[in-house]
Structure formats: structure tokens, C-alpha cells
Amino acid sequence: MTFFWSSWITLISFGCWAFILGVLLFVLKYKPEVEEDGTTGHEYDGIREYDKPLPKWWLVIFFGSIVWGVAYWVFFPAMFPASWNGLATVKVDGEDVPWTSKNELFSELESNNKVFTDNFEKNILVKADAAGATATLATLNELQATMRRSDNPPADLQAQIDEKVTELAPYVEKLSENPNALKVGSRLFLQNCAVCHGSNAKGAPGYPNLTDNDWLYGGKAGNILTTLHNGRVGGMAAWRDQLGEDGIRAVAEYVLSLSGNQNDYDLDQTKVAQGKVIFHEPTNCVLCHGPDGKGMISAGAPNLTDNIWLYGGDRETIRETLRYGRAGVMPQWETKLGNERIMLLAAYVYSLSDKTGKAPETAMANTAATQPVATKEATAN
Fold first, then answer.
1. Which of 109, 175, 219, 243 is the most buried (most CB within 10 A)?
2. Which residues pair with 329 in a beta bridge?
3. Which positions ≥6 away from 63 have C-beta within 8 Å?
4. CA distances from 369 to 15, 39, 363, 366 (A)
5. Which of the four pLDDT bands, split at 50, 70 and 90, describes residue 376?
6. What is the DSSP string of 154-222?
7. DSSP SS3 for 69
């Protein structure tokens, strides 16, 4: 709120308070003329008016509410809140800060989160034989708090945070085998992730399937932790202007010849040959997808040789992808969920994924049996 509006609200509040108090004092001091029988001489419908004092209990409540209002103005930022923080404080990040509704919310969230983290450490980590994660979590929390409070954090601070996140990977693997941890992780997934990935985690067009072994950014516990902490931004450039429509069709035909669903199409071998040349130009597709089209985890580029496609692997969809590009965002969950909940969520996702390393053909058959359009994990994995 601006100083102008906070000033007007304060002045109006003081004015109302002074007016009500003035009316009350006037009524208390006012002594009307009374008749010999003690009445004021006013009568209406047989009811005569007496001059009796106001009830003591009513006066106590009335004056008490005024005193309470003045105390409220002093303890809380009700008078000129732009410049008066009040006397009341709450504890946020271990420090006493002036009371505001925002700070009170943060304080209550921290209090509730402490209950959760204490239970997490005592009843989940210990029983999953992962108590060693406690020290790493404590260090990670301190580093993240330093990052939040610092306007100019040290250059290597983020690298230290990423290192500590990676150190939690072995404990996530242990949690993925603990029923209690998976129960909590599944609730977290349904509350936060199911809106995009589905309640069964099998995704949908544009949203990755988390139950197979096809991961753009890696499916190990450490990779999943990093994805949840930092998020991912996936981008497929639009090639319509660079390649033209003929180039788009040629490259799409070549990609189709690489993919696991090529047998469903009669390929134009002339276009396949033309597309191969365009694909392998140093600044074109090969830069991210590699010379064999199997993609690169470091770049988040998908494997084009299977039939697992995020947006669909049919001829026209591939052409559309090449023409207009694709953009996908996996949000970061570090600030919303915290480290402990992310560990549980990562453990649940890790438990769902196919860690058997099946051959692409086998994985293909499993995916085709569970969803009508296979998907390529592009942004969340």
C-alpha cells in the first residue's frame, strides 16, 4: 500500500475513534432536567424515560475495546504502515522480524515444516537406513538460506548446492524401497505432479511418461533430484525459415526412417537421402541429437531411434515439430516443497521408472500396451 493511502486510512481511523469517544464522553457528562418523579418528562406509548447511568459492564466493554484498538495500533503496523512496523515480531529463518501477514504465514509454514522434517528424520530416514542424509540436508538447508539472503551470492555457491543435492542420491534409492516413504511420496506426486503427468505417471502428449526407462536428462536418482530442484527448460528450435518446406519434409522423412515406428510407413527414399544430408549438417540436427540420432543427456535432446515421442511420432507431427519447434518447461520445486519432500517425491518417481535397462523393443512394447500415443520425455526427466 502506498504512503498516500495508508495515511488516509490511518487518519480516518483516528477520526472515527475520536468521534466515538467524544460522543460517549458527551453522553456521560450530559445531565438532562428531570421531574420530581425522576423522569425526564418524556413519555411514549405509556413508557416514561428515566435518567439512569449506563450499565457498568457495557462501559467496561466499550472503553476496553477502545484501549484494545489503541494497543493494536501500537503493536501492529496499523498506523502509517509504510513507516511504522509495530512492536510485534515473528520468527522467520531463525530471526525475529516485524509482524506482517506475509511474515506470519512464513513463520507458520516454518513451524509446520519443522514438524514434518522431524517426523521425516525420525520415522522415515532412520527406518529406511538413510539417516546419513540428515547431515547433508542440514548443510544443504544452510547453503540455500545463504543464497536466499544474499544479494550477491558467491560464484561457487550454486555449485556447492548442486553438489549437496547430488550427495542425496544414494539415500533416495534407499527411500525408494521403503513403503512409508513411497506412501508419502505418492501423495506428494498426486498433489503436485499428477496435473501434468497423470495420476498413473504415464504422461500425455506434451507431458513425459515417468514409468519407462527413456529419460532425456537421465533417470538416475541424482538426475531426478536435480530436475526437481532446478526444473528443466526444453527447447526444440523452429526450422521452417532455415530449411523451407521441402527441407522440413526431407528431414521428417529421414527422422521417420530412424524411428521405431518406421515400419508403419512407405518411406520416400529420395527424401530420406536428402534429409540425411540436411540432418548431418554441423549446425543442424546432429548438433543436439548426435550422428546416430540417439540424442544427448547433456543437452536434453531426445533419442529419435525409438518410438517414444512426447508430441507424437507420426509423419505429420514430426513435420509440425520441425516447422514450429517445441518448448516445454518443468518448474523447479525447491522453493515450494523443500529438500525433504523433494527426496520423497524423487524416491517415488524413481520407484516408478523402468530401471531394468530393457532393450528398446521391449520397452516399446510395454509403452504401446499402456497408452495409445507413445511419448518422448522432453522436459521433466
1. 175
2. 233
3. none
4. 73, 94, 10, 5
5. very low
6. -TTHHHHHHHHHHHTHHHHHHHTT-HHHHHHHHHHHHHHTHHHH-TTS--BTTB--SSSS--SS--SHH
7. helix
Contacts of 352 (CB under 8 A, 6+ apart): 201, 210, 211
Rounded distance between C-alpha atoms, residue 376 and residue 381, angstroms: 10
- Say what the pTM is: 0.72
**pLDDT, tens only, 75-93:** 888 776 667 788 888 888 7
More confident position, 372 or 251: 251
CB-CB neighbours of 154 under 10 Å: 11
Contacts of 146 (CB under 8 A, 6+ apart): 153, 157
- Beta pairing partners, 232: 330
Eight-state DSSP code of residue 282: T
The pLDDT of residue 82:
67
Contact 188, 248 (CB under 8 A): no
Tell me which residue of 336, 334, 259, 323 sits closest to 294, measured CA to CA: 259
Contact yes or no for 299/209 (Cβ under 8 A): no
What is the Cα–Cα distance from 30 to 40, expressed in whole angstroms? 13
> What residues form DSSP beta bridges with 96?
91
Supply the Cα-derived Rg of the chain in whole angstroms: 34
pLDDT bracket for residue 41 (50, 70, 90): confident
Average pLDDT over residues 135-162: 92
Percent of residues, the chain, with pLDDT higher than 70: 91
Give, in order, the Cα–Cα distances in Å from 357 to each of 117, 200, 249, 378: 34, 21, 33, 19
- Residue 227 pLDDT greater than 90, yes or no: yes
Within 8 A by CB and 6+ apart from 104, the residues are: 90
Residue 82 to residue 5: CA distance in whole angstroms: 10
Q: Would you give the DSSP letter of residue 326? A: E
Is residue 287 a contact partner of residue 236, using CB atoms and an 8 Å limit?
no
In the 3-class helix/strand/coil scheme, how is 19-67 assigned residue by residue? HHHHHHHHHHHCCCCCCCCCEEEEEECCEEEECCCCCHHHHHHHHHHHH
